[in-house]
Design a protein that fits this description.
By secondary structure, the chain is mainly alpha-helical. Helices cover about 65% and strands about 5% of the residues. Strand 5 (about 165-170) and strand 6 (about 170-175) form a beta hairpin. Helix 17 runs antiparallel to helix 18 (about 355-375) and helix 18 (about 355-375) runs parallel beside helix 20.
Length: about 575
Amino acid sequence: MVQWIFSDIAGDLTIDVDSQSFILHKFPLVTRSGKIRKLVADIKDLEMSKLELFNLPGGAEAFELAAKFCYGTNFEITTANVASLRCAAEYLEMTDDYLEENLVTRTEIYLNEIVMPSLEKSVEVLRTCENLGSFAEEVNIPNRCIEAIAMNACKEQLVSGLSHLDCNNGSSRVNISCQDWWIEDLSVLRIDHYQRVISAMRKVGIHQDSVSACLMHYAQSALKGIGKRQIWDHSRTKPNGRVLLEKEEKVVVETLVSLLPTEKNATIPLSFLFGMLRMAITVDSTISCRLELEKKIGSQLEMASLDDLLIPSLQTADSLFDVDTVHRILVNFLQRIEEEEPEETQLGYESDGIASPSHSSILKVGRLIDGYLAEIAPDPYLKLQNFMAIIELLPDYARVVDDGVYRAIDIYLKAHPGMTENECRRLCKLIDCQKLSQEACNHAAQNERLPVQMTIQVLYFEQLRLKNALAGTFAEGFLSQRISSGVPSAAMSPRDNYASLRRENRELKLELSRLRMRLNDLEKEQVCMKQGMDKSAANRTFLTSISRGFGRIGLFGQPTVKRQKSARKSQGVEGNHGRRRRNSLS
C-alpha cells in the first residue's frame, strides 16, 4: 500500500514501514528527524531514494502522524496516540537538537500537562504502552503513569475522606467505607502494569481496605471466564487458544495472590479467598501460591461456612472433594491457635481458658469440621485414611460432644459396606463414648453397623453414667480424679507444668459442660417419669372413688347384710357383758 502526504508535488523519498510505503520529500523529514537525515546521507542513488524503517514503535500509524508533524499538518495529540508518538519521536530522533519544539518536546508537554494530573488519562496512556514493549520503558512513560496514578489515587482518597468526616462525641474520624471510584478504572490494565500500580499505591499510603477492594474487583473482571468453565471436564485435548488463555489466567491468579496484604489485621473476605483458591486449583497454579491462600484461609477459618469447604477435586481417580486441601487449611488454623495462646495468657485468659477467643474459635471450627465430615462421608471414593486424618487432627477439647463425629462415621460406614472389621474398629475408636448425648447413645446401642465392642462400651458407659448420676457421686468422683491426675510432676519443667495445668483446667470445664447437658437430660427424663406416675395415680384414685360409691349404693345388698351381722355381733357382746355382771352380783 502506497500513501502520499502531498500528492500535488512529486516525492523524492520512499519509506517502507511495516509493509506500507510512504512517498515523501526529503527536506521536511531531514529537517526534523536525525535518524532519517543519517539514512539519507548514506544513500548513493540521489534521484530516487528508498528507506525501510524496522521495528518502528507504533508502526505505520505512528509514522504517518510523525510525517504530518514534519510537514506542519495539523493533527490532534490524544491519550490514545501520545505514547506511540513519543516513542516514534525517540526512534526518529526528533529532538530539539534539530529544530525547536520538535515532536519529542510537544509530546512531553502533553504528557506532563494533560496526562499526569489526571488519573483516568494516566490509566489510558498506560494501557496503550502495553503494545509498545521496551520502547515505552526507554522513555519512562509507564513509570511516570504509574506514579501519577498512585499520587492521584492518594489525593482522591484524602479528598473523599475529608468530605465524609463524621462527628462522634466531639471528635472527628475519617470514614473510609466509601467506594473508591478509581477501582473500576484500574481493572482494564494488564496484570504486570497492575502489579506495579498496586505496589506504588502501597508506597504512597493508600489505605489497605482500598487496595483489597481493588484486588477483588480486578480478580472478578479478569477471571470471570474461569467460573464458566466445566470443572468436571477432565479432557486433556485442548486447543492452542485455550492453553494460552489458561497460562494468562495462571499468571493473573499467582500475581494477585502475591499482592494480597500480609498484615495480620488486614481484612479480606473469606469468600474471596476461597474463590481464589478454587481458581488456583483450576488453573494449576504453583504450590507456593496455593499454600499462601490456604494459610490466609486458616487464619480465619472460624468464619467459614460449610459450602466454602466443599472444594471439588480435579483428580480423576480421587474423591469428589479436595480433602487434602481442607486438611492443610485445618493445620494452618491449629498453628494459629498455638501462636495465639501465649498472647491470650498475657491478656489474662489463663484463668478461664474456655472463655478465651482462641477456644471459642476452635469450638466453632469443631462444629464446622463435623458438618464437613458428614457431607463428604457418602463419597464412595473417599479413602479411609483421609477421612480419619481430619477427625484425628482436631484436639479433644474442640468438641463438647461427639455426636457430630458419630453421625459422620455412621454415614461413612453406611456408604462403604465393604470395609473390613479391623477398619471399622479403627474408625470407631475415634468416637469418645463418654461424650455422646443420650440420643446418640440410644442410636448407637441399636446400630448394627458398629462393631460389637463399641456397642458394649456405649451400653457400659451409659449404665455407669446413669448409676453415678442417680447416686450424685459421678461429678464429685470425676472431678477428684481429674484434679488428682492434674498434679504436676516434679520432673516436669515449670513451663510444661503450666501447660499441663491449663490443659487440665480446660478439660475440667468441658467436662462440667457435658455434665450440665447430662443433668438437663436426666431432669427431662425425671419430669417425664413424674408426669407418667401422676397420670397412673390419678387413674387409681378415680377407680377407687367409683368403687366406694358403688359400695355405698349397695347394688347387690351385701353391705346391708354386713351391717346386720355387725349389729348382731355387737348385741351378743353386750349380752355377754351383762351376764358377766349378773354373775358377779349373785
